[in-house]
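Q: What does the assembled structure look like for these inputs?
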Amino acid sequence: MIRTPGLGIVKGMGLTLRRFFEPKATIKYPEVRLDVPHKFRGRLQLLYDEYGAIKCETCFQCAQACPIECIDMGGLDTKGRFHVHWGPPETYGERRDESALRRSGRPVPDASYAHFEGIDVGPLEAILEDFDHDPRHMLQILEATQAAYGHLPVAALKLISHRTGAWYAMIYGTASYYRHLRFEAPGNEVQSAAIDAHRPSEATYLAGFEAALAGGGGAGAGRGKGRGGGRGAEA
Amino acid sequence: MTALSRTWSRLTLPGKLIFSILPVVLVLTVGLIAVLVLFGPTIIQFLADNIWLVRFVVAATAILVMSIPTAFLIIYMEMKGIALMNLRIGPDRVGPFGSLLSVVHGLKVLAKEDFSPTGTDRLVFTLAPVVVYMATIMGLLVIPFAPGLFGQDMSIALLYFFAVGGLTVVGLLMAGWSSFNKYSLLGGLRSAAQIVSYEIPLTLSVVGLLMLAGTMSLNQLALNQAGWFTNWYVFQQPLGALIFFIAATAEANRTPFDLTEADSEIVAGFATEYSGMRFGFFFFAEYVNVFVISALFVTLFFGGWNAPFAWPEAWQITLNLNPGQLGILLLILFAVIPVIGTLVLAAPFLLARSSMPAWQAIIIGFVLFNLVAVAAVVGIAYIGWDWVAGLLWFLGKSYVFVFVFVWMRGTLPRVRIDQLMGFAWKWLLPASLLNLFVTAAAILVFAS
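A:
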């Protein structure tokens, strides 16, 4: 094709002149409103960041604002330990089970909901009685509870908080500080794997950072080096 | 005394201003009347003897006054036109279809603080916008708007135009230099380089036309192109017209050659440190310049104020209206015609649509009558006075080219500085020399 000098200019000028007479795209918003369904709230979607982690901050604002209560939030807290949700937990559990059964045709166990399983409070009452409901013996209480139940269930922590008068947050802090205290039954590998799949651990983040920092051609070489504290071995 | 001071203290600030200015105005008015009564005939005699002085003052005032609404109109055209080309609506809040937005912009700019940064050369910094603005509008003094309607019919009008237009560079350099900012200085030098480079093809492109016309007087050039539109110089000098248009675009700092103040790239070039009305002057000068360049282009190549057709003499309508003959009937007509016209034009609406109340029909009739009356007045003026006809044609043609400038701004991307310079020196200059050579050869061949 022969390039004619100035032909592009003529074409462009023709285009803008056509646009000049075409109907306009602007909507004068306060005066003119698009015909939108009354309860339209846009597309409900959770977004993911560049490392594949979900961007949701679990602030529950969407669930609170939802006019027909169709948004139901459930998941783990930011440390991957606690199940959080909007609304009364028992209602949530019922609705979740019902919904999962309806959609999949079979009962779907909720691994993270296991934290909220009820417990037999008999042993715990005895332990608390032994320590005279004294919050100053918190570590001993927690160790005895773990010895009795195998781990520290949420219900047990709540009951300890209630009986001793110590803040739940303090008890949680104590329990999470000592390495020998755990929140899950030992050997629950399946659940840990499920949590890891759902929400990448810190090592995955680091790996992603390393890959991003390596950049360009070095992207393949840098991958996976951050995992397992291998950052110092980079050379 | 106390009563007087108490009354004074009760006045608001505007009241105090008015009461202090009022006596001065009174004294001045009385003095003016006294001077007119005492020395009136002498002054009139002096002005009649020095009619050139009156003409100069009137022309300069008229051009200064007309430049402001022209700038407003072109700024509005640009905002609206580019918006429409971008499939937007553009200004639509102030005035009908947003047409007063540029006026409000002007008022905003006027109300801003008169600010000059530390280290500026105050005098030069203040003078630079004035120089740019004056250099722009002084070109209008020689442009013939209509038969007999021009500031001055110089024999070297075109030369004067280019000489005065070249002063813009001085203003830009002044602005860049006095800003005490190296980027402004670079911007000023950059714009000077651009404008000086494009002056050469701009001037050379007109030389061929001047050889054809044998005159530099713009009025004479417009007269030469009378008759049918085939007499326009654009048909004898198409290459010259093209080069002139391109070079004029660069002269006026318009897209695609608006590197002097490429708003998206180099902040504002020479005008970086300017704000308020000083910047406003640069801004106005740019838009007035668009009109000036369009007007010159029309005058040189598109027949000036001539209509594109020339009907035979027999078809000419001559109006021999002398409203004075009607006497007192004229007053009665003035009182009666609007009422009758309104009612007559309202009647069809009232009769055709039974749902319309009478007051709505009358309002419609009044608006229609106004349109008809304006059309009639303009039509009679067009037929009766050839300067009205000429002015209408001239402004119409000029604004067509103003629209072309706006249209180009809505379409074309900005060129790079090296492309800009290369285009001027490698293409436009040889092309204008070729045009000059061919024209000269043609004159030699056909004249002998």
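DSSP finds 14 helices and no strands in chain B.
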